[in-house]
Design a protein that fits this description.
The chain contains two helices and twelve strands, in the order βαβββαββββββββ. 13% of the residues lie in helices and 30% in strands. It is of the alpha+beta class. The N and C termini lie far apart (50 Å). Strand 3 and strand 4 form a beta hairpin. The protein has one domain (2-204): Jelly Rolls (Sandwich). The longest helix is centred in the N-terminal third of the chain and has 17 residues, at 22-38. Bound molecules: succinic acid and fe (ii) ion.
Length: 209
Amino acid sequence: MTGRAAFHPPPGFRLLPGYFSRAQQQALAGAVEQAAAAAPFYRPAMPRTGQPLSVDMTNFGPLGWVTDREKGYRYEPAHPVTGRPWPPMPQMLLDLWADVSGYPAPPEACLVNLYGPDSRMGLHVDWDEEATDAAVVSVSLGDRARFRIGGVQRKGPTASMILSSGDVVVLGGAARRSFHGVDRIFPGTSSVIRGGGRVNLTLRRVTRP
Ligand code: SIN
Ligand code: FE2
């Protein structure tokens, strides 16, 4: 035997393949499209450098995750471009959270990431919440993506897997503090998102209940 042992995602990581049926994926994509009409996708910027991310974003729920050059990563109750409150979370997402999070309070933020053919998401830890005792729950819709997850150290070993439309990922327990990201999208692999691309919906509890 040569090489190092395969890295396994930390405990608390769960991949639920095909959690949503095709019909449910389409219903969810429709709900996202409708909510995004009120809270349009925009392109956020990195703290300090102002470098634009490679995904478009919007949010649903009482709080939304935003980033810009001046104030960096944070949660805000209103859309940075329209100034209006974020639209309510689709009921299907509240039901998903109740089913898989094991948390006694509802999610407060649903970050919506829209990936085009060249979008990616560098390795990062979701750590802007007070309620880090709650899992992060995410849904993939549309084109397939290669998702990567490691441990608590940025430079440590990682594992990768393909996420397909309808898949749900739960980052709870030790995996809540794990580095993760998206290496690449496989364009044209799904017709669930009108106009193509991939949508990732990330549900988070922000404040402690
Ligand atoms: C993220 O962790 O920010 C996004 C994960 C994904 O798109 O699957
Ligand atoms: Fe994340």
